[in-house]
Amino acid sequence: MLKKKILKLLQIINQFGVDPIRFIHAFLELPAYWRDYSAFRKNHRGVISFYPCLHERYTEAGITKSEYFWQDLIVARWIHEAKPERHVDVGSRTDGFVAQNVRPITTEIPGVTFRQADLMNTAAMSTWQDGNARGWGYCDSLSCLHVLEHFGLGRYGEPIDTNGYKTGFANLAALVRSGGRFYLSTPIGQERVEFNANWVFDPATILKLADAQGLRLERFSVFNPRTGLREIHDAELKETLVVLASEHYNLGIFVFTRPLA
């Protein structure tokens, strides 16, 4: 309990631009930096300027234990295998899985079209028109990774809406045409709001949202940094959902399909 409180306090401090853990790591690395600098200086007579990199010595080449890394990797693989005609990704970040975005993007990337839309605003679905009213059935493949949990909490400047995730899910599901797939990842566990960071959903909540929109669960996986990635099979689904709903936190990766009409 004390450890959780300390970590929460450090996270709050970090929001003000101060990272105590990073500062401590950098301070501890200073002796090694000066040792290496002195050794190099003895044999170099040219210009040397200071540009310390104090966080690289003992870190891995990339954050391969991150749930963002794993969700991007596995979902991209599934989408590639499915070979959709039109894939749309809806998200709040573009440095991992390329995303449609709630915030403006000015960078041009060949083969990628960025579109800004408010998924909590049903009327805004008119911007997705493609021969169907209000964008319904716009694509045969849709991903929304680590995003739904933010809807309505104001984190990215969107309106405060306690039902934002419900409206957002409904509008996302409406984009998927018959026979299409919807790839969704979101925090799951003891259902709660961690304001204004994110929701953590009981996985049953997500399944109920999907059922209300006529979507069927095709695949379900869970990622935890300690235990890794695990696919949940149909035979163990009911029991596993109960266990997951009692745990503090996991990342749920759902694949839904819209049955052929």
Overview in brief:
This protein is an alpha/beta fold and 261 residues long. It has helices spanning 2-14, 20-42, 67-82, 164-174, 203-212, 234-246; strands at 87-91, 100-101, 139-145, 176-188, 192-194, 198-200, 216-224, 228-231, 250-257. The strands form two sheets. Strands 2-1-3-4-9-7-8 form a seven-stranded mixed beta sheet. It has a two-stranded antiparallel ribbon with strand order 5-6.
> What is the name of the CATH topology of the largest domain?
Rossmann fold
Distance between the termini: 51 Å
Radius of gyration: 22 Å
Helical fraction equals: 25-40%
Q: What best-fitting shape do the alpha-carbon axes yield?
A: elongated
Reported CATH architecture of the largest domain: 3-Layer(aba) Sandwich
Please tell me the overall pLDDT: 84
Provide a descriptive summary of the structure in words.
This protein folds into 2 domains: 1-59, no CATH class; 67-257, Rossmann fold (3-Layer(aba) Sandwich). Helices cover 33% and strands 21% of the residues. It has 6 helices and 9 strands. The longest helix has 23 residues, at 20-42. The protein is elongated.
Task: Draw up the topology in text.
Blueprint lengths: L1 H13 L5 H23 L24 H16 L4 E5 L8 E2 L37 E7 L18 H11 L1 E13 L3 E3 L3 E3 L2 H10 L3 E9 L3 E4 L2 H13 L3 E8 L4
Defining traits:
261 residues, two-stranded antiparallel ribbon, Rossmann fold, 33% helix, alpha/beta, seven-stranded mixed sheet, 2 domains, elongated, 9 strands
